Records
---
Amino acid sequence: MNDIRSGDAMLSDWREAAGRFERAVRGAVVGQDRAIRLLTIALFARGHVLLEGDVGVGKTTLLRAVARALGGAYERIEGTVDMMPSDLIYHTYLADDGRPRVEPGPVLRQSEDLSIFFFNEINRARPQVHSLLLRLMAERSLTAFNREYRFPNLQVFADRNRVEREETFELPAAARDRFLMEIGLEAPRDAEARRALVFDPRFHDTDALIAGIDGGVLDHAAMAGIGAAIQHGIQASPAIEAYVVGLWEALVRPHEAGIRLPGIDMSALIQGGASPRGVAFLVRAARVRAWLEGRDWLVPEDIRAIFPEVMAHRVFLEPIYEMRRSTIVPELCRAVFDTVPAP
Amino acid sequence: MRRLAPLLFLLCSSLTAQSQVRTVEVRTPRPFGYFLGDLVRAQVDIVVEPGFALQAASLPQPGAITYWLDLRTVAVTQASEGGGSRVRLDLTYQNFYAALDARALEIPGFTVTFVSDTDKGATTAKAQVPPWSFNISPLREVQPPAREDPRTYLRPDGRVASLDTQPLVVGSAGFMAMALLAFAGLAWDRTWWPFAKRGGRAFAACLRRLRALAGRGEDEAAYETALLALHRALDETDGRRVLADDLPAFLTRNPSYARERAGLAAFLDASRHSFFGPGPAGAMRRLPLADIVALTRKLTAIERES
């Protein structure tokens, strides 16, 4: 299965580094191997990630651990109801000498070194803030103080609470589409991991836990270059291209693909979504997964491994089904993979 | 003398013709007692010189002869007899004459031609079958006495013995049971409704397709078609798409195939290389078409057992 060309020694070295990175994060966050693998894929695919889950399952800890292991400048902000877009960009206060000052806000503070911008509880912020994020995420640039700032290494990590609906704002579709993945996080099912989380004092002091992670595993400045090298180095055969297009077609028009789910009118289920950008993201992430598995060509399993996280949040259901989204969309994804032939 | 010569020739030729047909004899069972619609049979025996054969075209044709008489059949038998050749015609006429009184009717005669082919030329001889007659009687009185109820003129219907339907009922029930049994067998083979749970013979169908492919030689297109055929059979067996990484889950769901684990793994690996990786050429070296056919044959055997 190891068919990587010897000329691509850089890619193999980076694959080992990615393995070390995963092990480092796994040391701090137990029982979340799948989420860690997906975050690793997102890092090398240079995509933004939205983490979703219940209270206290370790969303913030996981993102902090990833940011720490990746290294580079890191900023973090908490979403609140009264937050305004300008709060991200600048900060005004009265200095000791009694004169007003304007300082760069969290986004601009680290200037163009910023590699991870961590938006905690993103659904508590207002839509104005979300729309500021649109450009920051899509173009990695921002206009402020009469000049344009560029963030070549920026990746936005956000998390949101799935349960709470009071004083929250649903992310607009445009903002959700710019996230590479939406990863659902659940408390670990494994009894051993649960015991450790509850009784091991190591996991109670989050700051010490994060500080224990080796910060120099990956060279964050080289991530953009290696990400591009992966995208060019992993081949996609005509068969896999046809497969992805088939999946896309079946996801958008499940009725015509012959997919039937009990109790659902398939012809009136999907309102839209599954954008070309989303499918391009899908292939980006799948290429990274193939690279992590040590192949230089894509297989359907690569697509399947990341499909729900990359595609599920891009599908928009008719309003009547939107309330049951959390059960319908995973079912639909599973049915799509059970229906579309590969090869 | 000169005037006599043609007369003499005529006499001689008529004598020779007479002598070539020795006898013509018409035999009928009885010349009386016929009614409307009865069949009238006649047997005509003609004895001719040896070497003469009947000319079939000269026989009377079956069909209407007059408005009251049809010729139904003509049968010819030929045998040699006493230095001559005897031709027997069995004629069956049908009489349609509705007689009002007893009277004689005449069946017209006809001529039959015989031919003798020799190397000096053909000689023909005609046998004249004479007309013969038979007596016909009316079916009922011409003027019956008046009756009050005209229905009494009609004779009652003849009584018909009632048939025993038991053997027919038993026979049809037997055939019905056989048909149902055959249909059940067909439904089992095709996995129609009551046997739907049994699952189709996916691998058997795949094996048939592979055998057809095997004759096409070892080209890459045929190889990929073979891979696809086996993929579809696996998908059908599992009821979902089976990817290479799904093999353990597939064997958990279908444990009877576990003894072909190695073969299936080799197949999925070859398929992956062929479709998504370096291409079919390398995959054909890893797993030739013959091995795929052999694997499918083993899978078909397992499928038949389950």
---
Amino acid sequence: MSEIGERVKKIVVEHLGVEPEKVVDSASFIDDLGADSLDTVELVMAFEEEFGCEIPDDAAETILTVGDATKFLEKNAKS
Amino acid sequence: MFDLTGKAALVTGATGGIGGAIAQALHAQGATVAISGTRREVLDGFAAKLGERVHVLPCNLSSKDDVEALVPAAEAAMGQVDILIANAGITRDNLFVQLRDEDWDDVIAVNLTATFRLARAATKLMMRKRFGRIIAITSIVGVTGNPGQGNYTASKAGIIGLIKTLGAEYAKRGVTANCIAPGFIKTPMTDALNDKQRETILAKVPAARLGTPEDIAAAAVYLASNEAPTSPDRRFTSTAGWP
């Protein structure tokens, strides 16, 4: 897993309080990791903070899985 | 109990009777306060009276840009915003059929839309910290209606709905949202009532007196504190018994 992937995973584990082994690329935040809609908003805010970039609403709507987040941040992370 | 040391509070309408009393009470409990209002010199005078732990942030709540800048300015000044007191409000009273569009728009903009924008910005900060206290000053007439105040009562009823929703959405994040619905409180706003109006009101109040800004401030201190219940949407009224 990429360095960004590891940081994404760490944030997801901390925010959702899930087992690290469940946080795989294909895991859906809502369907597999038990997040509700507010959790996903918070995750996006946490990603923005960690990676120093802005995630616009239309981009946030396409981030449904751990892999989606990693892919987006590999392209857009500033820190 | 009710110690607010280390907490940062933003109070709108701090130059008014109720807002001033709330800012003073939060400050007395140890909070750092950012006082906001339209009149810079009055705010400066108030700040000088309070002493340390005070920031002056003038803001015109009818301006979208001013409103959007206020919470970030408070965060920049205090490092955080733990408590938001959305207190500022205006009246443009008239008989319903004579209410002009601009009377409606002005009152909704300052009382309701600004409250929404400030609460939205503050909640974003608070949910990250897992602590926040949003307290909006509504009015008993938002529940009862009041002749001559179609715009004002609608704005205050709107605040109640907004705050109940906010409280329900963020309760799990440690952010509580509450309204205080004052009855007739002795302030410059109610000083404008004539004797006949005052008599009519007092006839309905079992305690036969107007409330005081300090009554409202005490409720605000409680709701801002760690001791306040974390269950959402408690609506407090302070009406000296009416209605």
---
Amino acid sequence: MKQWRIYPLLALLVVVSMVLAACPAPAAAPAQEAAPAAEAAPAATEAPAAEAAPAEAAGGSVVKVYTSWPLQGPMLPEGDSMKKAVDLALKHYLDANGGGPAGLTIELVNLDDASPTTGSWDGTIEAENAQKCVNDADCLVYFGTYNSGAAKISMPITNRAGIAHITPANTYPGLTHAWDQGEPEIYRPSGTVNYFRTNASDDLQGWAGASWAKCLGYDTVYLLDDRQLYGKGVVDAFIQQAEKVGIEIVGRDGVESSDIDFRSLLTKVKAANPALVYGGFVIDSGGPQVIQQMGSLGLFDLGIKFMGPDGLVNPALVEQVGGADVANENVLLTFPGLAPSQLTSEDGLKFFNDFQAEYGMEPSPWSTYAYQAMQVILDSVDRAGTADRTAILDAMRGLKDFQGITGTFGFNENGDPTVFAMGGNIVRDGDIQYVGVISPDMVEAGTCDAAMP
Amino acid sequence: MSPTEVLIQQLLNGLTIGAYLALIALGYTMVYGIIELINFAHGDLFTFGFLISLSLFRLYGATGTLVGFELVWLFTTVLLLTMLLTGILNVVIDRIAYKPLRKAPRLAPLITAVGMSFALENIFANWYGSSQINYPDFFPRVDILREWFQMDTFVLFTTQDLLLVGVTIPLMIGLRYFVQRTKLGKAMRASAQNANAAAIMGINVERVIMTTFFIGGALAGAAGMIFGNFLHTGRYLMGFDAGLFAFTAAVFGGIGNITGAMLGGLIIGLIKAFSDQYLAAQWTRAVIFAILILVLVFRPQGLLGQGEAEKA
């Protein structure tokens, strides 16, 4: 009897699961169909736009900038602050120039790519947002995303449509240059570059880290990593720059990220006696243990220092390595960007002060790059001189010697900034404290003094 | 550091790794010896010992290094309580997940063991969080060679390393004595050789199994606590790695053989230390398992294993 009853139940389950499986399909379809839609859209919409253009150009036409990042859930404070920074950048521009770029009117359309149910970014919503921009003939710049994962979804859509796409925060390396398999080509179906960022990517911390190490007088380094994409990538970048600035690499080992007993490996490091150990770790792979055991095996007593990337910049680090005394003054950490309070340029200070005056709160960390990316958008529209997708994209691609709030930079052929500033930090008094601005070219540029602990 | 100092240091590192692996390996080998089950949840008992002892120290209000009388009584109390609680946990695991399957095909309890391991790991993650956990210096740390013997050397051997060896060796000797000389130990060996015959001879096999689980758990608990006190770091998943190597050690030495488990642990500890030093850290696991394969090809029963013949 019992056995018989289970079959209808199973059948029902199968049917229900089939229905459920089918349901997301229509929702996912728009993302997949983005290709034909995107190709069709400009053709279909440009005709009327072209006709209308002469009339509107005379009276000053509109440039719509669609922004897309989370504006609800746990990311709301960050997203809201970034939105405010963008508004402020536009206001500053209008005040300084007495009008929009090239006589055009800039209109911001703020979209949210977070799901109301989960509160975090959602691929379907992000795809819809990008599609909205593509379908709106006036949308000439797509400004987003916060999460690199979301950018992976919207990039191919804006790329097919040939719309300039700039991010205020993505640090994932593969979005712009060779990283994991097939990247970044898989995000560029049209084969051209339309995506830009003004902040550095994660891996480039290795460059700045090596230059900073040289500045601090560390001439020998032992490299460790957790053999993960991020950790290994950062160390690979460190090696490139170490060779340029002349740091001798005395050894390199990869560890098992789940391992916690590194005493035998660190004994080997101790015997090699480098000035610095550079560790490509995140807080949950072996980084805290390496630091803690460097302390207990006496490496710090010998004057050997530890340097690591932002994967270790976490308030829990000090506690995890065994308290304030262990790592004090011995652990250096890099961070792939500058928070608003760390800006030193005139424009940067103006941004930081005006933001607080205007909104009565301190800007969130990534507001720096939201503001700076908006500066780039306005400059590109100005140089394009016309409300045209291709013209603006070309102008953005040709960005050179641009004065942003973090420094002067342009875009390279991948859409990465040619020059970028990062933050150097040190563990001190039980805290991770900001030391100063570091950058890959700090040795040649002679700006070592900016980040002396 | 001179090459000799490096060699000596790595030897010491290897010995300490071997010591805690051996303590865990004993639990695997004892349980296998009695009911031929690979208790995959055993590594997680090691984590449990680490976590519960940390909680106990906090419960007694310990925050930093203990001294004098407090050190002796609190440390001993926590050690005994940890062993007791971990032992009981192992018995409970057996009652819940293995005992109902005692007569089932051998693969069934193996799967429940894997399930038990996942369950425990997730409980630990909820209990202490999924990030790295720092275990404070409750046991005083003194650099023995330099501070007590005034030797001018880079070789580091601290009181905490001594603690590890000082707790492990008596426990192993005690276990050997228990198994070889006591009545219950004799019953254990008898049950291991032939459970049915032992039952016919009036031995309460279920009680023997319970004792075995208790002792195995208690040893893993002790290993977890001592590990915390000498390495000061851990994570909810640490038992998986430690368990994997301890299990390997048990097979290496000859599964079911108690002396073999100790020997296997020591050998793996030494291989790890020397491979990290003289080869490359990324090859260490490959080296350990390559040696394991070689040993098993030529001695399938493990280094000290007597093979199935005697059991039959």
---
Amino acid sequence: MSDQAFRNIPKGTKILVAMSGGVDSSVAAYRLVQAGFEVVGVTMHLVPVEDKPTSGAQASDERACCSIAAAEDARRVADKIGIPHYMLNLAGMFDEKVMGPTRAEYARGRTPNPCVLCNRYMKFDALFERAAQLGCTHVATGHYARIVDDETGLHLLRGVDPDKDQTYFLAFLTADELETIIFPLGWDTKASIREEASNIGLNVADRPESQDLCFFTSGTEKDGIGAVGKGQPGEIVLTDGSAVGVHDGIDRFTIGQRKGVPGGMAEKMYVIHIDVEHDRVVIGTEKDLYASEFTIDDISLVSGDRETPVKFTNVEIQVRYRTKPVNGTVELLEGGTGVIQLEHPVRAITPGQVAVWYSGEEVIGAGTILSVKR
Amino acid sequence: MTDRFVYLDHAATTPVRQSVVKAMEPYFTDKYGNASSPYSIGRESRAALDKSRDAIAEGLGVDSREIIFTAGATESIINSIIGAYLGNRHRGNHILTSSIEHPAVHAVLDFLKEKMDAETELVDVDSNGILKLDELESKLRDDTVLVSVMNVNNEVGSIQDIKAVVGMCEERGIMVHSDCVQSIGKMPLDLADLGVDLSCMSGHKFGGPKGIGVMYVRQGTHLEPICEGSQEFGFRAGTENVAGIVGMAVAFDEAVKGQAEHEVLHARYKQQLFEIIRDAEPAAEINGDLETCIPATLSVWLPGCSGEMLVLALDRANVAVSTGSACHTGAIDPSHVLTAMGMGRLEALGSIRISMGHTTSQEDIDRFGEVFAGVYEQVKVSAG
């Protein structure tokens, strides 16, 4: 582990740590205590929990994030490391800031990224507020990302474990916000964190990854949040505009999807574009899925003024989590939009998802993908 | 944490009185006999049990045979409501209860509805948390078998007119259950005078230990035993918790004896507490009405404030109060009591409950006064 994560934040500083009950946030909390901070643990209660007994014979193996079992794990870890632990009811805010916008985006034929929204509004905005209310000046989480400071200010860098780096979800943070954030795990690999958890006797050492348990990522996310079934029926068309079928609603489709696409074509066909205005789903071949230019809005820069037009050249752009970034340029325009040019085409760039650009290891900015040029 | 710990959540639980601990102690060590055993230490336990039963019965103005020891009020509620329903099933399946009952009662009624064909209905309360008696009367039917209305509400402290409820039900042959958990030591209580058929209390709410309680069953009430066995007149199987029962009886006696004095003190403290809160937040309002609530409980609405965060921030300052309700993960849901009293869900989340008991002192109130304004400011100013 590395003390670099704690920068020069003095011992005794009051820190709120978000604890999911999983191994990462548990070790993060432990390290903060070891480093001499005054730590308060919180677990966010984001979705209504099934009102069923969870002990003994009726217990299931599921330990979804926000479940009673996860809260219990967090409570036990907090007790073991000797810090107070509170449950925070943020279900109303989660519905307003994450679920609502996610449903709305699907209805617009876009494919939103609820994880980004959750990190932005719940993990950080809500936590900053709760921290201040509890007299804490800093917020810590178990994200794999690094915050470093030098003479030019604070920078957000990828976590050193390439398989675990989570900066994609954190790219909306600004340098001002980084000032009050601590990521104790950014210099570590997942394997070393598991080992550390095991060494210090945390019973969560072998728990599954929390992001794989979040209800949003269970594979049925659209259905699970009631986002499907509100769209109008319409045509399925080829790139030349000729109709080849009908669909029950654009909200059932996402870029790159094959399900619901008519068969019997010479090549495998995929959804390549969703035409919201005409309730049309455009399909094409694998080749048609590739693009190298798209626009973004909802732009955020770690440092600097996003209102001022600027061009970032020779940056690396990532259009989804855990994919290899591609070199290109990002040009921010007046009015809060931007244009991204990639050096080579990328498959299934999807409106509603987030594009993050990096300079080497460092996050420069992020924006939501608006439209893709074909 | 070196600051004085201030405990103002006696409606949740209370510290066990020293006299109670002392009275219980021999029943763990020397007098450990099973009250059903024929030899000396068994007989000793039996005698202690009888004596405790007599003392509690006398304090409640009822007969000893009407007092059944359980593991607490929740168990009493389960056994008495399900038992009364099954024992009177031939007469009907309709049950009425107030919208502000403790979740233990609502949960049992939901169970009867889902599993045993009961038809259950809620009766509303007014903005002070007082049951609408005319609505109750209008909802009584020929097939109504049971009405359950709590004596004192646990969240706001509102006192219900149980005699009036009994008056309506008695003439129709309907049984009345009244949860008296929050009444003991907080107001005079005479179950015979109230005339209810079923009631319950929990030892730990008045200076006794946790895990022990009373189910009151008036003689002549037809109740199907749910946990049938040789103990407790056939209504509660299992070896009696003699130490707990002895402790509860001592706590009960002291709570009843000290009730009048505490009522006066609590009324004074309540006024002071509300003034402290009002100084910090001029828009604060009491949920319920001083006249119709017990002095020991103060529920306050702080407009625009998060009750949840205020409770947690007060904990950081070593002061224990409550929001009054919590969901099972420990996070706070809007109170069903406050929403029943007409508050919106968001408004209801802006309330805290302060409740006093036998150990509450002027020092507690003074310390609360020292920290409250600062903590409130921190919670309010930091809110986005």
